[in-house]
Design goal:
The chain is α/β, with parallel strands linked by helices and 467 residues long. Helices cover 33% and strands 19% of the residues. Strands 7-8-10-9-13-17-14-15 form an eight-stranded mixed β-sheet, sandwiched between helices. Strands 1-6-5-2-4-3 form a six-stranded mixed β-sheet, with helices on one face. The chain has a three-stranded mixed β-sheet with strand order 11-12-16. The chain starts with a strand and ends with a helix. The structure holds ligand BES and zinc ion (2 copies). One zinc ion binds next to loops.
């Protein structure tokens, strides 16, 4: 689908937006939030009309607008026309730029389908061109360009997440990251097993040792901010998580191809920043491997010395994400010298037991960093909820025979306490996206056809405005 910020003379359908009670057609259309009312034209050469309700004029937010535009785009899918014009926009209390950005995000993020494995690759969508009229700001096409770059980065991430484990394993994930880096304009280096061994990333290597699909360490850098400090990003990159010898149930196994969502989102953030030529300095690390079983796999009870030197007793091989992240976090802080770090990981199923798919648990050891993150999340409409990093939980991960063990009760919190051991005082944010990276049921209207992309827009905006 193509999007244009201009008028079009011969649309087949014109969309008019209305606020609640602005237009009352005998109660058939009251302008309620997300309400759509289609009136066909009976005259040839005269366009059809689609009324689009935006709800209460006083209550509109960029978030409600984003969601309603996603609904609007889905309505277009039902209409068998090529050219649609969205007309007459009253920006109400939102600034014109904010309104446009939210509107485009809602439309562009909904414009996604994963058709690769369907024999019939014909697109379900019939609409080809969407024209949006009524915006008079000079930089409107810059905003369209920016949102298009972010949406296509998220769509690439969605493609990777949808890809099954037989076709997407560490080597393939790294290959895709390289393609995206080259196309977007950021640096990338892919380290193989021998180099990872030399670095001493034993906790990471241990998880991936039971398979022919060897691990990769993907190191990315985008450097366009002059001499400002580098911010670091780390994404969990399990291309397959069976649980290992602490094997998952058949129910639990079904969606574990998506255990690399954090990695896909980190790559999407790098791509968005680079394509939009943001004046920032960022480094990103993905320690990608698969957690499967053979005679060489790690086993419950094994003990390993991590890259940082701390010893870990592995009581559950399904708590593998934190082992890979422990080394990745230490590597990005110690070797890549970032001044702050954010990690995102599909880490604990318990995150979903607590919040469902509505909120992503957020942990931080730094108030200022946390506040800035949450301020930004308000604008992007992604929901996070803070969880405690209380020192009293440290004893939960005490091991009788090593420095720590890899599982404990209070699962989402103690997973985070485990990671905290590897960041020391570096300002850090941990996002457990286990239940929000993909959503059941769908919370954001625009994520119904794939992974949600949650964290990408918030972290992009956070870094872009300067942290
Ligand atoms: N990848 C899973 C977490 C997960 C579960 C993500 C469901 C998405 C949906 C993770 O590696 C895992 O297995 N965590 C365990 C931790 C436990 C063994 C302490 C879990 O959540 O059960
Ligand atoms: Zn696991
Ligand atoms: Zn996992």
């Amino acid at each position: 689908m193509n999007f244009y910020l201009e008028n079009f003379e011969k649309p087949e359908v014109i969309v008019y937006t209305y606020y609640e009670n602005e237009k009352n057609i005998k109660e058939l259309f009251e302008g309620k939030e997300g309400q759509l009312f289609f009136i066909p034209s009976l005259e040839e050469n005269k366009p059809h009309t689609l009324y689009f309700g935006l709800g209460d004029k006083e209550k509109i937010t960029n978030n409600s607008l984003r969601n309603n535009c996603a609904k609007l785009l889905k309505k277009f899918d039902e209409l068998n026309f090529e050219n649609i014009l969205i007309e007459k926009i009253d920006f109400s209390k939102l600034e014109e730029q904010v309104f446009l950005k939210a509107m485009l995000e809602g439309l562009l993020l909904t414009d996604y389908e994963f058709k690769k494995y369907k024999s019939d690759k014909k697109e379900d969508k019939k609409v080809k061109n969407v024209y949006i009229n009524g915006f008079n700001i000079n930089n409107k096409n810059d905003i369209l360009n920016e949102v298009s770059n972010i949406a296509s980065a998220i769509n690439n991430a969605r493609d990777m997440i949808a890809e099954p484990t037989n076709n997407l394993y560490p080597e393939e994930l790294a290959k895709r990251a390289v393609e995206i880096a080259n196309e977007s304009g950021f640096k990338i280096e892919v380290l193989e097993e021998e180099q990872i061994k030399e670095l001493g990333m034993n906790a990471f290597l241990m998880v991936g040792q039971g398979t022919n699909h060897k691990p990769r360490l993907i190191v990315m850098e985008y450097n366009n901010g002059g001499d400002i400090d580098f911010i670091g990003l780390v994404g969990k990159g399990l291309t397959c998580d069976t649980g290992g010898y602490s094997i998952k149930s058949h129910e639990g196994l079904k969606y574990m191809k998506a255990d690399m969502s954090g990695a896909a989102y980190v790559i999407a953030i790098m791509s968005s920043l680079a394509k939009n030529k943001c004046k920032v300095n960022v480094k990103a690390v993905v320690a990608t491997c698969e957690n499967v079983i053979d005679g060489n796999s790690y086993k419950p009870g094994d003990i390993i010395t991590s890259m940082k030197g701390k010893t870990i007793e592995v009581l559950n091989t399904d708590a593998e994400g934190r082992l890979t992240l422990a080394d990745a976090l230490h590597y990005i802080i110690d070797k890549q010298k970032v001044s702050k770090v954010i990690d995102m990981a599909t880490l604990t199923g318990l995150a979903g037991s607590t919040f469902g798919s509505l909120f992503t648990p957020i942990f931080s050891n730094n108030e200022e960093f946390y506040e800035k993150f949450m301020e930004t999340a308000k604008e992007t409409g992604e929901d996070f909820w803070r969880m405690p990093l209380d020192e009293r939980y440290r004893s939960y991960i005490d091991s009788d025979i090593a420095d720590m063990k890899n599982t404990a009760s209070a699962g989402t919190i103690t997973a985070s306490m485990f990671l905290k051991e590897f960041v020391d005082d570096t300002p850090w944010i941990h996002l457990d996206i286990a239940a929000t990276a993909s959503q059941w049921p769908v919370v954001y209207e625009y994520s119904s056809k794939g992974a949600s992309g949650v964290t990408v827009r918030t972290i992009y905006e956070l870094i872009n405005k300067g942290v």
